[in-house]
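Repro case for the chain-ordering regression, as requested:
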Amino acid sequence: MRGYTMLSPTFIAMVLGLAMPLVVLFTLSFWLQEYLDFIRTFSFANYFEFFHKPIYRKLLLKSIRISGIVTIATVLLAYPMAYFIAFRIKKNKLVWLILITVPFWTSYLLRVFAWKIMLGYNGVINSGLISLGFISEPLAFLLYNPTSVVITLAHAWAAFAILPIYVSLEKIDRSLLEAARDLGESAWMTFLRVTLPLSLPGVIAASLLVFIPTVGDYVTPSLVGGPRGIMIGNVIQSMFGESQNWPMGAAISVMSMFTVAVIISLFLWGTHSSRKRIA
Amino acid sequence: MKKDQIRDQLASGKMSRRQFNRTLMALGASTVMMPMGARTALGDSGDHPTVFTWEGWEVPEFHGAYIEKHGASPNFAIFADEEEAFAKMRAGFKVDITQPCTYKIPMWYDAGILEPIDTNRLSNWPDITPSLKTIPGTVFNGKPYFIPTDWGQTSVLYRPDLAPEYEDNETWGILWDPKYKGRLSMSNSLVDGVMVAAIYSGAKNPFDMTDAEMEKTRAALKEQLPLIRFYWDSPTEVEQALASGELVAGTTWNDSYATMKAEGHNVKYMSPKEGAMTWVCGFCIMTDHDPAKIDKIYDYIDAYMSVEAGIFDITEYGYGHGNAKAFEQVDSQTLADLGFVSSNPDDMLSSGIFQVAMANEAELQEMFDEVKAGL
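-- result from build under test --
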C-alpha cells in the first residue's frame, strides 16, 4: 500500500495526462464528423476509410520506412561515439557527455532550421563547394527531399541514442574483455562476441527512443521535406486542422500507434530470441 | 474529514495507516489538479484583450491610437492560416478579436463563435469604403459580423531577369513551366494554393467546382508537383528563395512584393491574364470575449481603422486599407510604384477573382494531401 501511495502523484499524472487523452482519442475515432459537428454514434467508418483509401497506408509505410532508416543511421553513428566515451576517455567523462548534449540544449525547431542553413541553396555546403571551385551552380538535391528529412532527424535524435548506448557500454565488466583477449580472441572478435551482445540493451533502448517518436513527426518533413516530404503526421495534423475531421484524425492516430506497437513487439521478440541464442 | 480533525488525529497518533494514506492521496490529487497560480502574473497585460492575427499585423504602427490611450499594446497570438486559428479556438483557446478573411466568415458564423459588431462604437466606421461594408457572407440578419481592414491580391511574384519571356505574357502558367523545374513555389494552403491550380485548369468557379473540374485541378496539381521546390508556409521563405535565385517564381501576397522592392530586388508582381485573386480581411469579435474588455476591444479595432494605420498599411505593406481617407494621404506615384491600379477597392476586387468560401474544403484538402503523397 505504501508503494502505491508513493506512486500516486505520478500515477494520477499518468492517468490524467496519458490514459485519459488516449481514451478520448479512441472514443473520437469511432465518431463521425459532419461539417462542424461530431456525430456521436458508434461507427467503424473511419477505420474502413483508413483501409479503403490508399493514401493512409502509403504514408504510414513511408513514415515507417523513413523512421527505420533514421533509427539505423542514428544508432550506427551514435555507437562509435558512445564507445569512444565509455572505453577511451579516462578523465572528465562528464565533461564529454555534456559536450555531446550541448547541441541538444537548443530547441528542436532551431536544429531543424540549422539543417536548412547547412543544406540550403545558399547554404554552408553549397557555398563551401562553390568557393572551393568544385561546383559552379548550387546543388539543389541537398534539401527538400526524403534524404534531407533522414539527415535532419538522425542528427536531431542523436543524443537519445548516444546516452543509453553509453550507459550499457559503461556497465560492461572490463575483466570479461581481458579474459576474451587472454583466451586468444582478436580485438574485432572480442567486440563482436563480448562487447556488442552485452551492449545490446542500450542499442535496443536507443532504437525504441528514436523510432517511436520519429514515425509521427510532422515538423521536420514540412520544413525540409519539400513537396513530396509529407509523412503520416502531416495528414493527422491536416485532419485536426484544415480538414476539420477530428474523428478521422483520431482513427489514423490509433492505427498508426497500433502499427508502431506491432513493429516494436516484433522487434523486441526478435532481439530477445537472438540474445538467448548468443547466450 | 475536517481539517482540524486530521490535525487532532495526527497529533494523538490515532490515525490509521490506511486513513493517513487516503489523506495523502487526496492531497496528491488536488495538488496535481490545482491550476498553476494566477494568470495575471505579468503586470497588467491581463487587462488588455487578446488579438489572434496574421504575422506582421501585430506591429505597433497599426494601433498607435490604442497605445496612446491605454499605454501599451494588447496581447497578440499569431496564426499561420485561419484553419489553424479555427482548430485552436475550437479546442478551447480563448481570444477576444480575430482577423480572418471574408471567405472564412460564413463557416465561423455557423460555428457560433462570432458576435455582431456595434459599428456606432467605431469613430472611423463612416470613412470605410462602402462596398467593403456589405461583402456577401459577412452580414447576417442585417447585422455586421466583420470590420474590413486590409485588402490585397494573391498573384505570382517572379524574377524578370530569370524568366524574361513572361514579362509580356503574365500568366499563372509560369508555375507549370517545365523549363523552371525545381525553381517554382506555391502557397501550402487551399485558398492561395489549390485554388491557383483550379484557376489554371480553367474551373468556371474555382470556389465551387464540379466533379469534372475537381479532377482537372487534381491533374494540374500532379503535373506541377515535380516542378515545385517547396510549398511555402511563411512569406519569408518564398521571399528569401526569390532573392537568392533559388526560385524563379512563386505565389505571394502584395506585401512580399512591397518588401522585396524596398530591399532593391529585381522582382515583378504579375497581373495574370486569367485574373489575380483578391481578398479582404478584417476583424471579428468572438462570442467568448471578456465582457470587461469590450471598450478596449472597440478601441483597438478603431485604432487599426484610423487614417494613420491605413497610410502605414498602404506604404509599407502594399495592401489596400479599409479606410478610404487613407488613400487621399498617399501620392499617386507611390501608389503606382506599389502596384495599385486604383485606390478604389471596387476596381481591384472586380478585376480579379474574389476569394469566397470554398464549397468542399475537406475534399480539397484530401486531394492536396493525396497529390503530395504521390497518388
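Ordering looks correct now. Chain A has one domain: 52-278.
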